[in-house]
Design brief:
The chain is of the alpha/beta class. The protein has eight helices and nine strands. β4, α4 and β5 form a beta-alpha-beta unit. The chain is globular, with a radius of gyration of 16 Å.
C-alpha cells in the first residue's frame, strides 16, 4: 500500500528488535512507521530473506530493510534482499541505488540514497560506498545535483547521515530547502533523540519539505532487550501530530 505518512507528511522509521516488537511498534505508531530490520544482523542473505518475510506479514509490507549503522559493506546484501523481499522501504548507499531499483523490479518500493554532511552548507558528500567512502578526495557536490542524480538512479529520497543530531544544523537547513525546492523526500538520520526530535522536525517542516521519514534509532532502544521502547514511539507520534 506504500508508505503510510501521517497527513501525507511524516512517517517514522525505528528499529524492530524482534517480531513481537515490530507488531507493537506498528500499533503504537498507528501504522505511520517503517520498522527497520538490519541486513547486518544476519549471517547471509537467505536467512535475512526468510526472517524478513515474517516481518513483512506483521507489518503489512511496512518493513525498512536496513544496512546497519549506514555500513556501506552491506550494500550488496540489501540489493540482493530486494530480489526476494518487496518491502516498502530500502536503505542504500548512494552508488548502489540503481542496482537496488533493478533488483526490486518495481517502482513502488521506496529506496533512499545515503549522502553525508560535507562541512559546507548546500554541499553533500555522495561518496558513501564501501570503496569511495575512504577516498582521499571525497565526491562533494551541490544538494540539487545530488537530488537529480538520485532521481536518475531510481531513488526516492536523501538519507542525510550521520547528522550528529543538531551538530549539522546549518547543513540540514540547506538540505531541507533543496528537498523542498525539488519536491523530494528527506530522511534525517543519526543522533536523533526524543530531546532534539521536535527541533529537527521543525527545521525541516519550516523549510517546506513535503514528505519526511525521520530515523530514530539507538536513543529509544532498551539496552537490555534490544527492543525499541513503545512509549517512546507513542511520544514521537504525538510530536508529529502536534507539528503537522
Amino acid at each position: 500500500m506504500g508508505i503510510n505518512y501521517y497527513h501525507h507528511r511524516v512517517c517514522l522509521n525505528v528499529l524492530a528488535g524482534s517480531l513481537k516488537n515490530a507488531e507493537e511498534i506498528y500499533r503504537a505508531a498507528e501504522k505511520h512507521v517503517e520498522a527497520g530490520v538490519l541486513s547486518a544482523s544476519y549471517p547471509d542473505v537467505p536467512s535475512a530473506v526468510e526472517d524478513m518475510k515474517k516481518y513483512m506479514d506483521v507489518l503489512e509490507g511496512n518493513l525498512s530493510v536496513g544496512l546497519g549503522g549506514g555500513n556501506p559493506a552491506q550494500w550488496k546484501a540489501v540489493a540482493e534482499i530486494a530480489r526476494e523481499v518487496k518491502a516498502n522501504h530500502f536503505n542504500q548507499v548512494f552508488s548502489a541505488v540503481g542496482c537496488t531499483r533493478a533488483n526490486v523490479g518495481n517502482e513502488s518500493s521506496h529506496i533512499n540514497a545515503l549522502v553525508s554532511p560535507s562541512g559546507t552548507a548546500g554541499m553533500v558528500k555522495i561518496s558513501t560506498g564501501p570503496l569511495s567512502k575512504d577516498c582521499e578526495q571525497p565526491a562533494v557536490i551541490p544538494v540539487d545535483t545530488a537530488i537529480a542524480m538520485i532521481r536518475e538512479m531510481g531513488g526516492n529520497s536523501i538519507k542525510f547521515f550521520p547528522m550528529g543530531g543538531l551538530k549539522s544544523r546549518e547543513e540540514l537547513k540547506a538540505v531541507a530547502q533543496a528537498c523542498a525546492g525539488n519536491h523530494f523526500i528527506l530522511e534525517p538520520t543519526g543522533g536523533i533523540s526524543p530531546d532534539n526530535f521536535r527541533e529537527i522536525m521543525e527545521i525541516i517542516l519550516q523549510a517546506g519539505v513535503e514528505k519526511i521519514i525521520p530515523h530514530v534509532y539507538s536513543s529509544i532502544i532498551d539496552k537490555e532487550s534490544g527492543n525499541t521502547k513503545i512509549d517512546e514511539v507513542r511520544n514521537l507520534l504525538s510530536i508529529v501530530k502536534e507539528l503537522v
